[in-house]
Amino acid sequence: MGKQRKAPIEDRLSRYAVTRDLSRGLGKGIDKLPVSELTKTVIKVKSGQVVAVTAETSVALAASASAAAKAGVERFDQVRHELADVPPAPSPAPEPPAVDLVASLERLKALHESGGLDDQEFAAAKARLLDQFL
């Protein structure tokens, strides 16, 4: 496989407005350097290559990021639709309120002693309460 030829630097720089402007700005700064004209030319060519590669890389990364984001959105929608077809899991039954055994027995005893419960009612209520805990 042969090496792929790149377009001339001027063509690569002219593809994007920002690269043209940046290269032009760099060129003006390079012209002010106290170096020979040959050195200025070499610096301009190298900086132009850097600007072009940076722009091309940025465009490629943006295209890849856009494609990845699109694929992510499509996958999200697919999973969301798959999950929409699944009936929701039944919610767990609420737990009965925690009953304090000692406090409940004391209330039953107080009701029994006050005459609110006779011996038979007290024994039945106490048995039901103990069945819950044992």
Structure, explained:
This protein is rod-shaped. It is built from five helices and no strands. The two termini are 82 Å apart. It has 134 residues and is an all-alpha fold.
List strands and helices in order, with pairings.
Blueprint: H1 9-14, H2 17-31, H3 37-84, H4 101-114, H5 119-133
Helix pairs in contact: 2-3, 4-5
Mean pLDDT: 83
- The geometry reads as rod-shaped
In total, the number of strands is 0
Order of helices and strands: HHHHH
Strand content: under 5%
Provide a brief overview of the structure.
By secondary structure, the chain is an all-alpha fold.
Features:
single chain, 134 residues, mainly alpha, 5 helices, rod-shaped
